[in-house]
Design goal:
Length: 323
């Protein structure tokens, strides 16, 4: 493995909104900063057609917001390199970031690798993603005012987001079992909501469309095998969300599901390793919250490195006194 010579103050892993904000804050504080990304900078914003809940813009295309954030993040001298990070090794006061054939050395690392939604893997899901198929009610619900929606799933997210969507649309929750896994209090709210109907014991086998947008779903009842087709304008899928944290599991900083645990300063259990954005154990996963985390982590990384320098200087001074 080729180790680069430069020692960075901070390496940020992942160039979504969280990572780009962390790089902005760190480099603006004069820290030498490297942003490592395995794809195109922008993260999930690149998969978002329109963003209507990022302050400063009434509406903006996701990739356009990504480009603006990238320009912002790079303006104070942060470096950007391609890298698919596989491991972080703790070596005294240094953190070694291994990405493919290269490894990079830093004093602090900020993990900003995001999460991904589990897919159903059915026909029409990819074809109509962003054109009626969505994994985020807060992001896309407002596009469906007065429409008919199917929500797929039976856990907390599916039922809670189903309730949220009723402020815009009529919602049919399709669930493969005869009862929800969601907390009872959330279930109670759903049962009382007149805009929610429930299709029990059923799975969606196909998402239909007219080539441009979603027009319906094909539903199979698991008990009777009866197939029905239901006209809907949108399908919200909540069958699980997974953290992109495989590369960091051996650091012991994750919970049982792989979400990285931090305190409110984005510090993990390992000093000098921070985590931000969607990969973190938290409730609201949005661009605004990722950006907020990024600012906090960039700032705390600066404080951490100042402390580190103070400690090293004090140790050197103590050694000189002994000499
Ligand atoms: C379809 C869709 C629509 C959405 N719409 C909205 C919306 O309208 N408004 C809103 O606020 N939020 C929206 N969201 C949510 C929002 O996009 C996320 O909350 C936000 O992008 C999270 O930012 P992040 O920086 O934590 O992670 P991400 O944006 O997921 O970025 C993580 C980055 O890390 C990189 N990466 C991952 N692993 C590695 C690795 N091992 N090595 C190197 N790089 C790695 C990835 O390639 C990616 O670029 C939407 C999400 C989706 C999926």
């Amino acid at each position: 493995m080729e180790q680069t010579e430069k020692i960075y103050d901070v390496i940020v892993i992942g160039a979504g909104p969280g990572g780009m904000t962390a790089a902005l804050y760190a480099s603006r504080s004069n820290l030498s900063t490297l942003l490592l990304e395995r794809g195109i900078p922008g993260g999930e914003m690149n998969n978002t057609a329109e963003v209507e809940n990022y302050p400063g813009f009434k509406s903006i295309l996701g990739p356009e917001l990504a480009e603006k954030m990238y320009e912002s993040a790079m303006q104070f001298g942060a470096e950007h390199a391609y890298g698919d990070v596989k491991r972080i090794v703790v070596d005294g006061d240094y953190r070694i970031v291994e990405a493919g054939k290269k490894s990079y050395k830093a004093r602090a690392v900020i993990i900003a690798t995001g999460s991904h939604h589990r897919k159903l893997g059915i026909p029409g899901e990819d074809q109509y993603n962003g054109r009626g198929v969505s994994y985020c009610a807060v992001c896309d619900g407002a596009f469906f005012r007065g429409k008919q929606l199917a929500v797929i799933g039976g856990g907390d997210s599916a039922v809670e987001e189903g309730i949220y969507l009723t402020q815009f649309a009529d919602v049919n929750i399709v669930h493969r079992r005869d009862e929800f896994r969601a907390q009872k209090i959330i279930q109670g709210r759903a049962f009382k909501n007149e805009k929610i109907s429930i299709t029990w014991d059923s799975v969606v086998e196909e998402i239909k469309g007219d080539g441009q947008k979603v027009t319906g779903v094909v539903i199979r009842n698991k008990k009777t095998n009866e197939i029905t087709e239901k006209a809907v304008d949108g399908v919200f899928i909540y069958v699980g969300i997974l953290p992109q944290s495989d590369a960091f599991l051996d650091l012991g900083i994750t919970d049982g599901e792989g979400w990285i645990i931090t305190n409110e300063h984005m510090e993990t259990a390992v000093p000098g390793i921070f985590a931000i954005g969607d990969v973190r154990q938290k409730l609201l996963r949005q661009i605004t919250t990722a950006v907020g985390d990024g600012g906090e982590a960039g700032n705390r990384a600066f404080a951490y490195i100042e402390d580190l320098h103070d400690r090293l200087e004090a140790a050197e001074a103590a050694a000189e006194t002994v000499d």
